Amino acid sequence: VQLQASGGGLVQAGGSLRLSCAASGRIIGYWIMGYFRQAPGKDREFVAGIDWNNNTHIADSVKGRFTISRDNAKNTIYLQMNNLKSEDTAVYYCSADRHKVIITRAVHIDYWGKGTLVTVSS
Fold first, then answer.
1. Which one of 16, 24, 43, 44 is least enclosed by Cβ atoms within 10 Å?
2. 24-57 burial, b for 16+ CB within 10 Å, e for fewer?
């Protein structure tokens, strides 16, 4: 299973970015996919997840600003990040797992994509 992430970059506070992640290989359509992030010196934390039926779970820290969506035909998910804040600066990791519910602990994730850096300047 490969997770190809794209997007990210440098943006001013209040701006927007969109991340995308395409899954390939022995991916199964009903897998749960999502994003975690890791800021320097901090643990990897859950950001958002989405299941096959487009049920989503968004972390409280980004709720109302971030949305996650999924194109099952393309095995691709998107993380739309609006009204970005400096505290959103982190490396963002795409995730995929075979659990039946959206997992928020990084230790339980089956597959990770390469991280993509998001830097929000104040």
1. 43
2. eeebeeebbbbbbbeeeeeebebbbbbbeeeeeb
Classified as helix, coil or strand, 94 is strand
Token pair belonging to 112 = 């990770």
Q: Note whether 18 and 48 are within 8 A (CB).
A: no
3-state secondary structure of 92: strand
Give the pair of three-digit tokens for residue 9.
């970059």
Q: Is the dihedral of CA 50, 106, 45, 78 positive or negative?
A: negative
Q: What is the pLDDT of residues 43-63, one digit of tens each?
A: 999 999 999 899 999 999 999
